[in-house]
Design goal:
This protein is of the alpha+beta class. It has helices spanning 7-15, 22-29, 33-49, 60-69, 77-109, 243-246, 261-272, 297-307, and strands at residues 113-118, 124-127, 133-136, 140-145, 153-164, 173-176, 181-184, 188-193, 199-206, 209-213, 216-221, 225-230, 235-240, 253-260, 275-278, 287-293, 311-315, 318-322. The strands form three sheets. Strands 1, 2, 3, 4, 5, 6, 7, 8, 9, 10, 11, 12 and 13 form a 13-stranded mixed beta sheet that branches.
Length: 324
Amino acid sequence: MEKKAPVDLIIRNIASNGTEYAKEIREWLENSAENKRVYHDLLALWRITGSFPNRFFPDKAGAWTNVQRHIHLQKRKYVLYHRIAQVAAAVILVFLSVWAGTKLDHWRERPLYTEVFSPVGQKTRLILPDRSMVMLNGGSKIRYSQDFNRRDRYVELQGEGYFEVQKNRDKRFVVHTAELDIRVHGTSFNVKAYEGDQTVEVGLEDGLVGITRDEEEILQLTPGMVATFKKNEAKFDVGKMDMNLVSAWTRNELVFEESPMEEIVQYMERWYGVAIRVSPEIMNGELLTFKVKTESLQEVLNRIKMLTPIRYRIDGGQVIITKP
């Protein structure tokens, strides 16, 4: 067997569960411990990803030109060829060491993630490995490492989620959003952090919540408090609010209290999974208050029509709202 790693044979052997080139690979493995390390690195990569990276193919012609440039032309021809062969072999061995060592070590250390997405118009409930419960609103996504609850309890949230966190004083639970981190030990709270919204809202139902930004704790919430972070101004508004209203969406209720039409329309799009076009004159700053439970889209539009003069048309997945 040749000294350099027979990469093609190794890949064929691993992909065939050891049936192809078994004798050749066995003989090559017996040559050195380094050969065994390279083989097991490739095997680990195959088990993790189910594939192999594109291999590097050296520019042999260019390598030969560079070698010739550094060898005295006075040497006999056979000495020159021998030297070229040595350098070429060294280049291949160095590349294999880097590729099969550094690159594969990177793959082994790269964390794996579980990602759950709740489509618009739907809600998704999931139980995390520590038995904490998360309810995702429409158009929301949560991601966590497969090491979750081994070293820490860290999740990333885009959208809106209601959390019931299992108590664990040794492992703080952290919800990361693009703007804020919410840190708790065991509590129930709601986080609304949609990418397109101008605010991030955190409402606490039970327990204690610490809100940090850039690794600095800005404030703590006690039950019944809601913190609203204004992205453009980079500041917080904090006040008391009925948490039954904040978490109403988890009970299939739509609740708006003195909300502008823009906010209502945006929420309805996520709730019903439709696109809503509104005439600019309707976005006049008027504030609406109403509550609906498990109503159809048409029933909600009729409720809005009772509160402010509008005309609407439903065309498949699109709603058009205009002045009458």
